[in-house]
């Protein structure tokens, strides 16, 4: 019945199906008394029909409390289950394969860590946790992979992430679920899950000149970042080696973690958060760099996470 | 047409009816009689129902095949945006309150009119002005933002007359606020002697709850729309991140209004159903206090659940968990109503007339809509079905299956009161049944489509979704025809129906104590209430 029930490509998807199945049983049980009794009463107590109508009750606190509380308590059980599954979905696995996603009217662009790029098709290995780091170049989009039972909005101005582990190799749908303008309904493509070997082979055939971090390093030089942040800089700017993932004290006294969002904002909205002890002289690059380039720079700075400023060439 | 001879066959009562108290166009357009204003609304919302319905017909026709057929992608987007905007703000929100609420509230509480009759007329003019803006948008090519106006699409990227249509909605909002205000004051101040809060018909309770939401929530919508216009026209950076704004702020503001607004659309319907069930079963409503209190509970808790529209927007996991929990809480008072209606039927004297059939249809569809709302509240399930046809099916079960069925139920129950004429009951039964069947055929397949993974607002879709889409579109054909049917026999009854008399259903309630149609100032003498509501004769004691 391929037109009645969706295909599934992960254990998580099976779990969601099970949750829905169980919940459907509950809501059928909660509504069955209403449907059955309404029909029975309509027949039995039809006007003009003889029936025992003596001693009707029109108020009962006991009944009211039980039909308010019993369904609610049963629902709470499912609430716990569904929320637990949802929290699980939002846990980013530490060793995940990170793939960058940029949405723009009306296409999906993917960048693999090795620098391989693809449009409207996403290849991933099965059995490996994958985390998508997603940015939008214009309006809100939403990456929807029905076979995994997951979606996540892609919001301009902030990174969102989506983590999953696919379990079955195959080719599935990938769609945009948030209305994004004229060609919203054709902003989709394929989601291809492959065995790790096939994925490795695919990575080799997909053409690329540099890894994501290497491409970021090139941008770092060509856009003059190194002029301020590099070893021979004459201005007072913080070194970016060892920055990623560390706490950063800000001018106002606040301390934030230097995650991808922080680095993105440092490049595109430098005035919003000033590192303590430095002059606010960094210019914005909003007019020069698109979200894809910024993601490459983030990958580069992320690759320096374990480096120390002293080791600079 | 100025001087006509007095029609000889009229009885004394009919001659002074609100219908005959003036026949010129002027006497209608400048009336302050709540009953005439109700008729003005009835005509105008019917017009908008057809405009919105036409847009839905285009959408459904195009979805018969996976490929684009009738319209371009742009045209399709404009069709469903228009459909949503017109149906929500120009049909559903004013539907029951502004027609039946206006007509019945003063009659039910024993008053001669609403508290501010001129303000009432002004509400209608404001509504019409908003409607003209909406029609102007249509003539100028429409908008392609959907009825939800998500930013920054609406504020920076969409082409089309966004500011104009935002103005249309902004303006009608004032009509809602004034009507809500008028109802609140009327219910507080104009109850006749003996009409205590505990004796109010449940229709009044639910309109009271609705009015609170109208007054408190609508201003938030007005502000939000004004901010969109400011960003679009002057580049004020509120929602667009490129200007330093936050797109999710828009969603918070919009749903802070729009979730309560769904209760604006359904609470009046719940009030109607309580009246219909009691009159059809000739019994007091079971658990009156609980049914009345649940309306207020819904209105209050309804303000705390807006985040359930944003589970995949990037909102924090903790916020989502809390909004999910509160959404379960708000379902409880709705459940209470349904169980109480069922218990009302027990040991009743049930007449299977059109009002009862519409009420049963309502309860069935409202239950399905409400329970699938609980499915959507389950976080892990919502991640999958958010923004798919599952959601479309869910809200149509409530807003169309529920509210529109209740609207037709109200029309069939109070038509004899409003017009003084009876309509053919058999045709009413046929219409109730056809609407129920057509509705399920249209919208049930959409639940399956949504779980299959068909996103909403899709003009072009993968071929494996076609079977269910064809089913849905065929159902829409049946539903469209079924909606037209009552117009035929109800209009026919205006001329040919038998005179109704004051109380054709043998119902309780002050509106049934005056002539049909009611005289100009309702009550010659303000009545005094001495008995509880729904005081039907039941066999409390052994005979
Ligand atoms: C009487 C009241 C109705 C109301 C208040 C109503 C309301 C709505 C709303 C608010 C939407 C969301 C619009 C959007 O997603 O932009 C919608 C979508 C839709 N409605 Fe209705 N509707 C009504 C009747 C109907 C009928 C009778 C049909 C079909 C015969 C219909 C078919 C649709 C379809 C197909 C969509 C989805 C369009 C899409 O997202 O691609 N509606 N409706
Ligand atoms: Cu889209
Ligand atoms: Cu809601």
Automatic annotation (TrEMBL), chain A:
Keywords: Copper, Electron transport, Heme, Iron, Membrane, Metal-binding, Oxidoreductase, Respiratory chain, Translocase, Transmembrane, Transmembrane helix, Transport. The chain crosses the membrane at residues 20-45, 66-87. GO terms for cellular component: membrane. One of its GO terms (biological process) is ATP synthesis coupled electron transport. InterPro entries: CcO_II, CcO_II-like_C, Copper_CuA, Cupredoxin, Cyt_c-like_dom, Cyt_c-like_dom_sf, Cyt_c_oxidase_su2, Cyt_c_oxidase_su2_TM_sf. It catalyses: 4 Fe(II)-[cytochrome c] + O2 + 8 H(+)(in) = 4 Fe(III)-[cytochrome c] + 2 H2O + 4 H(+)(out). One of its GO terms (molecular function) is oxidoreductase activity. It is a multi-pass membrane protein. Gene3D superfamilies: 1.10.287.90, Cupredoxins - blue copper proteins, Cytochrome c-like domain. It comes from the Bacteria. Subunits I and II form the functional core of the enzyme complex. Electrons originating in cytochrome c are transferred via heme a and Cu(A) to the binuclear center formed by heme a3 and Cu(B). Belongs to the cytochrome c oxidase subunit 2 family. This is cytochrome-c oxidase. It comes from Amaricoccus solimangrovi.
Automatic annotation (TrEMBL), chain B:
Its EC number is 7.1.1.9. The chain crosses the membrane at residues 38-59, 79-100, 121-143, 163-187, 208-234, 254-273, 285-306, 318-336, 356-381, 393-415, 427-448, 468-492. It is a multi-pass membrane protein. Residues 28-530 form the Cytochrome oxidase subunit I profile domain. GO terms for biological process: electron transport coupled proton transport; oxidative phosphorylation; respiratory electron transport chain. The keyword Mitochondrion does not apply. It comes from the Bacteria. It is an enzyme of class 7 (translocase). The keyword Heme applies. It catalyses: 4 Fe(II)-[cytochrome c] + O2 + 8 H(+)(in) = 4 Fe(III)-[cytochrome c] + 2 H2O + 4 H(+)(out). It holds the Pfam family COX1. InterPro entries: Cyt_c_oxase-like_su1_dom, Cyt_c_oxase-like_su1_sf, Cyt_C_Oxase_1, Cyt_c_Oxase_su1_BS, Cyt_c_oxidase_su1_bac. GO terms for molecular function: cytochrome-c oxidase activity; heme binding; metal ion binding; oxidoreductase activity. One of its GO terms (cellular component) is plasma membrane. Keywords: Cell membrane, Copper, Electron transport, Heme, Iron, Membrane, Metal-binding, Oxidoreductase, Respiratory chain, Translocase, Transmembrane, Transmembrane helix, Transport. NCBIfam families: CtaD_CoxA. Belongs to the heme-copper respiratory oxidase family. Cytochrome c oxidase is the component of the respiratory chain that catalyzes the reduction of oxygen to water. Subunits 1-3 form the functional core of the enzyme complex. CO I is the catalytic subunit of the enzyme. Electrons originating in cytochrome c are transferred via the copper A center of subunit 2 and heme A of subunit 1 to the bimetallic center formed by heme A3 and copper B. This is Cytochrome c oxidase subunit 1. The gene is ctaD.
């Amino acid at each position: 019945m391929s037109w009645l029930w969706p295909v599934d490509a992960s254990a998580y998807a099976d779990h969601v199906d099970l949750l829905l199945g169980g919940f459907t049983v509950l809501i059928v049980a909660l509504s069955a008394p209403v449907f059955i009794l309404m029909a029975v009463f309509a027949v039995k107590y039809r006007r003009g029909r003889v029936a025992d109508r003596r001693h009707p009750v029109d108020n009962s606190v006991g009944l009211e409390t039980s039909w308010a509380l019993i369904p609610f308590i049963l629902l709470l059980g499912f609430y716990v289950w569904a929320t637990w599954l949802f929290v699980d979905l939002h846990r980013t696995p530490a060793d995940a394969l990170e793939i960058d996603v940029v949405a723009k009217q009306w296409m999906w662009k993917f960048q693999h860590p090795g620098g391989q790029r693809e449009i409207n098709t996403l290849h991933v290995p099965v059995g490996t946790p994958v985390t998508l780091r997603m940015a939008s170049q214009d309006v809100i989009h939403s990456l929807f992979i029905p076979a995994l039972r997951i979606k996540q909005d892609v919001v301009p101005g902030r990174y969102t992430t989506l983590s999953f582990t696919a379990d079955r190799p195959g080719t599935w749908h990938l769609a945009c679920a948030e209305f994004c303008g004229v060609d919203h309904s054709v902003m989709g493509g394929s989601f291809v899950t492959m065995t790790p070997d096939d994925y490795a082979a695919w990575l080799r055939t997909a053409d690329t000149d540099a890894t994501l971090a290497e491409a970021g390093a090139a941008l770092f030089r060509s856009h003059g970042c190194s002029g301020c942040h590099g070893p021979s800089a004459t201005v007072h700017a913080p070194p970016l080696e060892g920055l990623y993932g560390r706490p950063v004290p800000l001018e106002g006294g606040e301390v934030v973690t230097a995650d991808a969002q922080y680095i993105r904002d440092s490049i595109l909205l430098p005035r919003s958060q000033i590192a303590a002890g430095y002059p606010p002289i960094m210019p914005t690059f909003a007019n020069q760099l698109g979200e894809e380039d910024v993601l490459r720079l983030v990958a580069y700075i992320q690759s320096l996470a374990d480096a120390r400023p002293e080791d600079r060439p | 047409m100025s001087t006509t001879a007095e029609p000889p066959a009229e009885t004394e009562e009919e001659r002074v009816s609100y219908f005959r108290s003036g026949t010129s166009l002027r006497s209608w357009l400048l009336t302050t009689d709540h009953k005439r204003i109700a008729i003005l609304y009835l005509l105008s919302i019917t017009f908008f129902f057809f405009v919105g319905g036409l847009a839905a017909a285009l959408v459904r026709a195009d979805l018969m095949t996976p490929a684009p057929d009738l319209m371009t992608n742009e045209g399709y987007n404009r069709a469903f945006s228009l459909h949503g905007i017109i149906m929500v703000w120009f049909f559903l929100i004013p539907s029951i309150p502004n027609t039946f609420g206006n007509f019945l509230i003063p009659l039910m509480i024993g008053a001669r009119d609403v508290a501010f009759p001129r303000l009432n007329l002004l509400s209608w003019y404001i509504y019409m002005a908003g409607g003209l803006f909406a029609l102007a948008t249509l003539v100028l090519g429409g908008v392609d933002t959907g009825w939800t106006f998500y930013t920054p699409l609406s504020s920076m990227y969409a082409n089309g007359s966004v500011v104009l249509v935002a103005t249309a909605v902004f303006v009608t909002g004032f009509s809602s606020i004034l009507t809500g205000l008028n109802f609140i004051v009327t219910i507080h101040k104009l109850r006749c002697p003996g009409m205590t809060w505990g004796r109010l018909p449940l229709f009044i309770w639910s309109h009271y709850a609705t009015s609170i939401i109208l007054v408190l929530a609508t201003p938030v919508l007005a502000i939000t729309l004004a901010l969109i216009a400011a960003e679009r026209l002057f580049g004020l950076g509120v929602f667009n991140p490129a200007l330093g704004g936050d797109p999710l702020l828009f969603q918070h503001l919009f749903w802070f209004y729009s979730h309560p607004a769904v209760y604006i659309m359904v609470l009046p319907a719940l009030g109607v159903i309580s009246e219909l069930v009691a009159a059809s079963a000739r019994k007091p409503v079971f658990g009156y206090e609980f049914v009345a209190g649940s309306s207020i509970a819904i209105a209050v808790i309804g303000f705390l659940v807006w985040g359930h529209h944003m589970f995949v927007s990037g909102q924090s996991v903790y916020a989502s968990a809390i909004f999910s929990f509160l959404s379960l809480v708000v379902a409880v008072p709705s459940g209470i109503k349904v169980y109480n209606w069922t218990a009302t039927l027990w040991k009743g004297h049930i007449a299977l007339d059109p009002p009862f059939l519409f009420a049963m249809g309502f309860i069935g569809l409202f239950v399905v809509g409400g329970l699938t709302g609980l499915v959507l509240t389950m976080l892990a399930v919502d991640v999958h079905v958010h923004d798919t046809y599952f959601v479309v099916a869910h809200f149509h079960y409530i807003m169309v299956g529920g509210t529109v069925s209740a609207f037709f139920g109200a029309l069939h129950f109070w038509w004899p009161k409003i017009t003084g004429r009876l309509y053919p009951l058999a045709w009413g039964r046929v219409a109730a049944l056809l609407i129920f069947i057509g509705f399920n055929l249209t919208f049930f397949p959409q639940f399956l489509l949504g779980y299959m993974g068909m996103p909403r607002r899709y003009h072009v879709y993968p071929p494996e979704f076609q079977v269910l889409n064809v089913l849905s579109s065929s159902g829409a054909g049946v539903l469209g025809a079924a909606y037209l049917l009552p117009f035929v026999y109800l209009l026919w009854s205006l001329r040919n129906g038998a005179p109704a008399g004051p109380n054709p259903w043998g119902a309780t309630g002050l509106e049934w104590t005056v002539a049909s149609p009611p005289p100009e100032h309702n009550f010659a003498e303000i009545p005094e209430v001495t008995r509880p509501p729904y005081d039907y004769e039941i066999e409390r004691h052994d005979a």
